[in-house]
Write a structure and sequence with these properties.
The structure holds two protein chains of two kinds. Chain A has three domains: 18-107; 127-226, no CATH class; 242-493, Cathepsin B, Chain A. Residues 1-8, 62-75, 194-199 and 487-493 of chain A have low confidence and may be disordered. By secondary structure, chain A is α+β, with helices and mostly antiparallel strands. In chain A, the strands form three sheets. In chain A, strands 6-11-7-8-9-10 form a six-stranded antiparallel sheet, sandwiched between helices. Chain A has a three-stranded antiparallel sheet with strand order 2-3-4. In chain A, strands 1-5 form a two-stranded antiparallel ribbon. In chain A, helix 10 (274-286) crosses helix 12. In chain A, a hairpin with a 6-residue loop joins strand 8 (435-442) and strand 9 (449-453). Chain A has 14 helices and eleven strands. Chain A has helices at residues 18-55, 74-107, 127-140, 154-163, 168-177, 180-190, 205-214, 219-226, 262-265, 274-286, 342-359, 374-382, 396-404, 469-475, and strands at 246-249, 295-297, 303-308, 314-319, 322-325, 387-390, 408-413, 435-442, 449-453, 464-468, 476-482. The model of chain B has no long low-confidence stretch (mean pLDDT 82). Chain B is elongated, with a radius of gyration of 18 Å. Chain B has one domain (15-104). By secondary structure, chain B is an all-alpha fold. Classes of the chains: A alpha+beta, B mainly alpha.
Chain lengths: 493, 105
């Protein structure tokens, strides 16, 4: 069934079917109750199972591994999704019902808002306020400040003053009510720089106002406008394509109680930035205090990390303490083991740096660090050029000499064969198309060996691997060295 | 393969105790099997109980991709319960084998 108001002028569905959606909400509520009940029963059965094994003298060890992340107890793995459903589903069901009510109101002419709007959680938007704001936009977006102010983003500034007090749900509805052309007008204004005599929006104040205002919207809503409002610099990088999540504040300390401990601190997440994380590790292995001088917490609670552009000039990137989590509350990208934050914050700041300095994207996204080369990561972190060398023309003796000189080294594996899984070896320890940091080379071993650190970290169970030269050359295609040469700190540490 | 290896020394060694423990493990496996049905039923009727990925897929289809974290959790959790059922049954078999040997001496 397609209710009135659910199909747009172009024939595309712009809303959802209220009655069926209401049933879905009911089902979600029922699922939550069942999930809670099943979860409690599971706990009871596990206790009984453990009691039986204890009776026959067997202490249950770690549970069977069902995937590489699964180092926690079996019952936690099983119960957590059910508990999550039990706790989150009622809220989701309530939210669905609220939206369904809006749709019914729309269909009955009680609410003029576009049912295709995303509708953030929170109080219902006031339709009159939204309608007024849309009218104000139409009347004023093309306002000009006169000849001298012709490029002053004047109309956008006036509209900002009008909409800045809207609630998030009203702001969401307001944006949804704008046509593509109107959004384009707004974007054009936000892109206006200074006028010929220096007026306009040279300090991008209007842009910043809009970015701050729109950042009150959830990521899923904001993502709808990133590709349209390309002149806005949003304060948070976008998640990778096809990922949903929420930005939650990370609590903890920048470094652990004993400073940087790379084997503890580094855990790669769902972004393919092994090359960057291994660069962090490689530098730390040669200079343990390097990053203590390259990232700092600011008095306002934000963090500033230091990178270097192609010319070797320092670039400061400031980010807040929020990190992307999936809907169940797990971190999506680099981890924060024992609430040590520096790696995850560095990764977030690097996303912004890469997006702004290299990719040419007009918005920041974690996709911009998905895939890359260790040599690039080493350069961006140190400001010093890296040297890449094929493994075939080199030797462990050459690597040992580089390490002796204090060089940071990242080495990368060959791609796995098509449909051959992600590992290159039968034991499932060497990951294909993956970057490792070089921890050490032991020339006195017979035969000599190289020890590498996998940025997947300790939870992977394959954090550290030791190979002979033959094995290293078999699985690894190249390596990058970087002399680090710490530049003078611009913060005067 | 279960939790018990052939070399494990057990605190119970008589045929009766071993058979009793084997029966208990089988009962736990049966209860887990019933529960995994309930677990899957959280999502509604499922096509193939032994393939949690399919239930999780149904779940995602029903409730939307915004709940992908639940989808992943259900897959992992379902796999883990099924694996445990298999381990329990395997251990029950090991205990029954030992009970048979204990009885033959």
């Amino acid at each position: 069934m397609r209710g009135p108001g659910l199909v747009g002028d172009d024939g595309k569905i712009v809303g959802i079917e209220p009655f069926q959606t209401g049933l879905l909400a009911d089902r979600l509520d029922a699922a939550a109750k069942e999930a809670g009940g099943v979860s409690r029963q599971l706990a009871t059965i596990y206790d009984d199972i453990e009691a039986t094994y204890r009776r026959i003298g067997i202490r249950l060890g770690p549970p069977p591994r069902v995937d590489r992340w699964d180092d926690t107890r079996l019952d936690d793995d099983v119960r957590s999704p059910l508990d999550t459903i039990a706790s989150q589903a009622p809220g989701t069901a309530a939210d669905i019902r609220r939206r369904v009510q809006m749709l019914y109101d729309y269909m009955n002419g009680k609410n003029p808002l576009n049912p295709g709007s995303f509708f953030v959680n929170g109080p219902l938007p006031d339709p009159q306020k939204v309608t007024d704001a849309v009218q104000f936009f139409k009347d004023h977006i093309d306002d000009s400040g006169g000849f001298l102010w012709s490029n002053a983003a004047q109309g956008a500034d006036e509209v900002y003053d009008d909409i800045k007090d809207l609630s998030p749900s009203e702001l969401d509805a307001f944006l949804a009510a704008l046509t593509p052309d109107q959004l384009k007008d707004l974007n054009n204004q936000l892109g206006e720089g200074s006028s010929w005599w220096g007026g306009g929006d040279p300090d991008t104040g209007v842009q910043k106002n809009y970015a701050a205002l729109l950042s009150t919207l959830p990521i899923a809503v904001l993502d709808n406008y990133r590709s349209v409002l390309t002149n806005l610099h949003f304060p948070e990088p976008a998640l990778m394509k096809d990922q949903t999540g929420q930005w939650l504040p990370a609590s903890g300390t920048l470094f652990g109680p004993n400073g940087i401990d790379i084997k503890h601190d580094l855990v790669q997440g769902q972004d393919g930035d092994c090359w960057f994380l291994s660069s962090l590790a490689a530098i730390t292995e040669r200079d343990p205090h390097f990053f203590e001088n390259h990232i700092k917490q600011n008095p306002d609670g934000t963090y500033t990390a230091l990178f270097y552009n192609d010319d070797g000039k320092p670039v400061q990137i400031t980010v807040d303490n929020t990190l992307p989590h999936d809907p169940t509350g797990r971190l999506l990208y680099a981890g924060t083991p024992d609430n040590v934050l520096w790696v995850a914050l560095y990764e977030k700041a690097y996303t912004v740096f890469r997006s702004q300095n290299d990719s040419g994207h007009t918005f920041d996204t974690y996709d911009d660090i998905n895939g890359g080369w260790g040599g690039t990561g080493l350069h961006d972190l140190t400001g010093v050029d890296s040297t890449s060398t094929p493994t075939q023309g080199s030797s462990l003796a050459a690597l040992a000499a580089d390490l002796q000189k204090g060089q940071a080294i990242v080495t990368g594996t060959h791609a796995p064969p098509p449909n051959g899984g992600e590992f290159l070896d039968l034991n499932g320890t060497i990951v294909g198309s993956h970057a490792y940091s070089v921890e050490s080379v032991d020339l006195s071993a017979k035969p000599p060996t190289i020890t590498l650190l996998n940025p997947w970290g300790a939870p992977s169970g394959i954090q550290e691997i030791t190979l002979t030269e033959t094995q290293w050359k078999q699985y690894f295609g190249e390596y990058a060295t970087n002399p680090i040469k710490r530049p003078p700190s611009i913060w005067g540490f | 393969m279960g939790y018990i290896s052939a070399s494990d020394q057990l605190t119970v060694t008589t045929a009766t105790d071993l058979k009793g423990a084997a029966a208990d493990l089988q009962e736990h496996a049966r209860r887990l099997r019933l529960l995994i049905q309930a677990y899957a039923d959280v999502l509604g009727p499922v096509d193939d109980l032994d393939r949690p990925e399919t239930w999780a897929g149904q779940f995602a289809d029903t409730f939307g991709q915004t709940r992908r974290g639940w989808h992943d959790g259900l897959t992992t959790g379902g796999d883990a319960v099924l694996t445990m059922i298999s381990m329990l049954n395997s251990d029950a078999f090991e205990l029954q084998t030992r009970a048979q040997k204990a009885g033959s001496h």
